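User: Some background: our group keeps a shared notebook of sequences we're curious about, and every so often someone picks one and asks for a predicted structure to add to the entry. Today it's my turn. The entry only has the sequence so far, pasted here. Could you supply the structure so I can complete it?
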Amino acid sequence: MHHWNWLIVIYLFLGGLGAGAYLASFAAEKRWLGRNSHLARIGYYLAAPIVAFGTLLLVFDLGQGLHKPWLLIRLIFNFGSVMTWGVYILAAFIVVGLLKAFFVFKKKQAPQVITLAGAVLALATGAYTGLLIAVIEAVPFWNTLVMPILFVVSALSTGLSLTTLVAHFMEKEGSANPLEGKVHLALVAAELLIVAIFFGMMALGFKGPVGAKSASLVMFGSYAIVFWGYFIALGLLLPLVVFGREYLLAKQSAPKVATEGASTGKETAIAAEAEHSSYLVLATDLSILIGGFALRALIIFTALPIWDGKLL
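Assistant: Of course. Here's the predicted structure to add to the notebook entry:
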């Protein structure tokens, strides 16, 4: 039943993860995540190596690596193939990502053309991981424009989570900012909405009975535990609750800090609450990574193919 295996699942996850990590640091560098964000460097270091490793898996699986090297040559020069476009996008992103990381490591200002090109290529990489399967007409579950949109939003969310996790333990420059949580709350909410639309479309038969059967397999079949437990509960609902709580606490605590900040006891209480929230957010970031991986595994392993309109 499964034409693609775990290597493809890992590639799809890593491709989006690396792209999202670059865009997280890009947003922080542009101060879209607040002033002096601690995410302005780590994502640049992570992006290219993660995507490079994922690309290696893709090439060795779809091109069959050293077993049939002539397929790799065909892959590179088959310009009518979406997969070929992706190889050039991925290669360009890896090169530009490494250049940007080098400038960041040397603490030098990278030329804007490199930084912006990396952001465009990162977005293209995230979209390509979804487009790669969306163009396959024989699999109705994949063959929808919702797929690349879903993968882009998931890439942004998982990339931001990974960057936040690594920055917490390794980054000495900058500081955490409440705006990061607001952005992540918006991303999780958007992903939940897209998932609801996608599975609603499939269940209602917008892509025919085969697409509906795939959706049923995910939601009510043998993969239901993975879907409702790992993806929905851990990957979406828990983050929605945690980031929503953080957002409400930030709104409530801001006036308190301004009026009660002179009290040493209350300053200590506020600091303790902030530390507790920080660990809760980090655990939530880890759950988002688990959910993002589960999403791609579900998409790949539950898709049923058709031939002449009939289920294979």
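Suggested note for the entry: The longest helix spans residues 264-301. The first strand starts at residue 306 and ends at 307.
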